[in-house]
Amino acid sequence: MPQRKLYLNLMRHLRIHTFQGEPLYQDPDAGVIMSTQSLVLQGVTRDSLGEYVCRAVNSEGTGESNPVPLKIMCKYYVHYILV
To answer: Does residue 77 fall inside a structural domain?
Structure first.
């Protein structure tokens, strides 16, 4: 019986991370890691630029964080060596 209660409690609390309004899914190979309290993005590129939001849903309703913009503040230079 305790397992069933735990399962029901998990179903009552849902947290969704979104990028540009679209849901994000955990994919460690792509550098998207979600824990109980964090969203970790690894190996970000220009395609990762935009707004991220955390949305929580439970029996009391839905709440959203303020959008968090991801900006990359560096330039990559490609150097060519002509031989």
So the answer is: no
Specify the DSSP class assigned to residue 8: H
Give the chain's domain count. Answer: 1
Do β-strands 50-58 and 39-41 pair in parallel, antiparallel, or remain unpaired?
unpaired
- CATH number at 48 reads 2.60.40.10
Q: Give the global pTM.
A: 0.68
Q: For the residues of 11-61, what is the DSSP string, one character each?
A: HH-EEEEEETTEEP--BGGGTEEE-SS-EEE-S--GGG-EEEEEEEEETTE
Cβ burial 29-59 (10 Å sphere, 16+ → b, else e): eeebebeeeebeeeeeeeeeeeebbbeeeee
- Full domain range(s) for residue 29: 2-70
Q: Given this model, what pLDDT does residue 82 score?
A: 63
Q: What is the pLDDT of residues 5-27, one digit of tens each?
A: 444 444 456 788 889 989 999 99
